[in-house]
Amino acid sequence: MTNDNEFQPDLSENEEQDNKSPKNDIDDNISDLSLSLSPELDPQEKEIEEEIKNDDLSPEIHDQVDEILHINENKEQDDLTQFIIQAKQQGYNCLDLSKKNITEFPTTLLEFPSLQYLYLEGNEITQLPDDLFLRLPNLKWIDLRNNKITHIPSLGLDKNSSLRYLLLSGNLIRTLPVQLVFIIHIYVFLNKISSIAYQYRSASTNPNLNEVVIVSAARTPIGSFRGSLASVSAPKLGAAAIKACLERAKIPANRVQEVYMGNVVQAGVGQAPARQAALYAGLPQETLCTTVNKVCASGMKAIMIASQSLMCGHQDIMIAGGMESMSNAPYYFPRGDTPYGTLQLEDGIAKDGLTDAYDRIPMGLCAEKTAKKENLSRVDQDTFAKLSYERTARAWKEGKYKAEIVPITVTTKKGEVIVKEDEEYRKVDFEKMKTLRTAFLKDGTITAANASKINDGAAACLLMTRQAADELGCKPLARIIDKNSIRQFEYDCRPNRFFLFYITKSSYIK
Fold first, then answer.
1. Fold category of 212-333+344-368+403-427+447-482 in CATH
2. What is the pLDDT of residues 78-89, one digit of tens each?
3. SS3 state of residue 33
4. Per-residue pLDDT tens for 468-502?
5. CA torsion sign, 7 to 9 to 11 to 17?
6. Which side of the chain, N or C, has fewer Cβ within a 10 Å radius?
């Protein structure tokens, strides 16, 4: 808000707008105007059109205008809906529906995503669609002066919004959404504004938490260690999953407000892995991005954090997931004086991923302790591992994984190879499973065949508030009703302990 114009919420009811008041040149105000209530800055349609004709409009706007289409130039056109459809088909990006006695916002306009400039001044419109700015993502200028609008929707008004000019003078607006700070020029002269506040965004205005849904999900194939995906970094695997999520939900990349991605072994990945993944996926630079490290639960924790943000109303649309390329984890050599003799390197996978940081115990040994505690024999574990491989093979054969996979194109010496299927289950040899040596204890039970694998891959999901999903026409795949984590019991971190705890306290489980 500029210092030159003092905020005046209590304007006199008898005060009338001077439609012939002079307008300051738009160029003069681009650098210093954020939000103005000054009548001198209230642009008039005829003057704007004259500037367009005289090539005198600011380059920011003029360069984008292909043509101004006036409805009153088409004398034979009586059907407003058909007219808008015709304008869309003819490729117009600027539409003038001023002073046409329109009482309801034409919903057909919401199917006009290429629209950049819209004039609706001097009608009788009372309400705007809640998803107006989401459905018209390329809108840069909208003139709504002299209507009867009481409410400005906030959904889609953020730093990624294309909207630069919002003309609202002469309406009945009392509250402005705080999201308007992201718009360069706002004209709200002669309204009854009494506050600027969050709308549907926090517990202060909506004490109930938002319902959160997952509207799309995607994952890469899971590659074996040093296998088919070894040449692809974790952020690029994550980018593939993110991009597929957006394509499946048909959501533009610039609509995503924030990204959380889990990544454990980050050494050598480069700065800000989550941001790398987002940018590789085509999301804009302004998108908020955070990398989460909660070891094995990193991807799940990323989803939990995103859902909390959506529940509290901080965001409407988010991406969350996890990504890992264990094949690219480096070896470490500590800084310091080089000692005499052999140099000792340490595997980054073991140090930062698979070793307890406090007792220096490898995760495989933790599994041995759990197996002993639960009286699980090697036969039990081999049988379960064999069943898991068989189920995976059957699921792939029946096409049950096809819907969730995004293929990865890998460049090799022999040319491009498309990886579109999990790799590990095809490598198992059931005959050798019984004869493999144990990996961590001489008399142990954990082998390379029945242990968790070292892999490469990524997965992501697109989360929204229920309101955003409904307004965008996205069908939810799942609803997030609760989340939690519990203290591990020695080395036993069984998920069923959480479910037992959750069921006893949840009102959703009947």
1. Peroxisomal Thiolase; Chain A, domain 1 (3.40.47)
2. 578 888 888 888
3. coil
4. 999 999 999 999 987 877 666 555 556 666 665 55
5. positive
6. C
